Amino acid sequence: MGGPLVRERAATARRDGAGGARVDADLAIARRVIRAEISGLERLAETLDGAFHRTVEACAAARGRIIVTGLGKSGHVARKIAATLASTGTPAQFIHPVEASHGDLGMIGPEDAVLALSNSGETTEFADIIAFSRRFGIPLVAITGGARSTLAGAADVVLLLPGAAEACPMGLAPTTSTTMMMALGDALALALLERKGFSSADFQRFHPGGRLGRRLLRVRDIMHRGEEIPLVAPSARMSDAILVMTAKSFGCVGVCETGGRLVGVITDGDLRRHMRDSLLCQTVRAVMHVTPKTVSAAALAADALGIMNRSAITSLFIVDEDARPIGFLHMHDCLRAGVA
Questions:
Q1: Is 10 within a domain?
Q2: DSSP string for 193-258
Q3: Together in a domain, 293 and 225
Q4: What predicted TM-score, i.e. pTM, was given to this entire model?
Q5: Picking from 68-77, 105-114, 288-297, which range would have the lowest pLDDT averaged per residue?
């Protein structure tokens, strides 16, 4: 009974109750899936053995590329593994096993190594790529859950996935198995990275775009050089120093002694603090600030920007090991490069 307002409130309560139940059910499914995959990863970590070391050895010894192959969901994982290897200093390429049978076997060279992904190890489309690797003595590494499978029997090294239930309630959709494959690929890429001594500078070379590339920019990549650097001698008149500051448009000028070492800096702020009738006749040495902030060309641009922010300044001189200026960096250079 009751009026329209009472009936509307009752309907809203029923909808909210049903919606709340659906939220709880969805969260329960998500947690179950994530926990199942975590369990699989934990078993994978526990069962890793010397086969992983042999895989790293085989990949490190390859003078060509790591050819990564897989079909279906394993193929999607294989593409990601190839991309991760390539971006961390190990040349790699994905080849579709079906396309390999129709000409792409020609992309595989005698100095390559093949990394094949198949949970069952019985992917029939692998037949030609397996036969090709055996015929030409190309190392073959299998990532599979089938210890007695055709792929495992043909491979030089087998990275065996431990028995772990798929997160799918029917046990059919590749979930836990593909997560374990992905983790093994990451582990392999990073083991090779550390073995090669791959540095952040190398990483930036392969990741020049996007936020990551900007974070890894070095001062040398964006600094001003040569004639663009605003410099005067300590004995110069302030009238000359102001002309240099105006011509270079950076709002400051560095002061170098005869040997080329940076000994001071004059900024717009220094001009304001020394503003008097005699300013133009004074020497640069009488006005300069004697502890200029500097940075090396190899420093990250983000670190240089941090120095400027903390010191409440807008520019830095870049110096070599003998404190001689080799570049100049303004805050606007960092902002234009997307370093923030």
A1: no
A2: HHHHT--HHHHHHH--SHHHHHHT-BHHHH-B-GGGS-EE-TTSBHHHHHHHHHHHTSSEEEEE-T
A3: yes
A4: 0.65
A5: 288-297
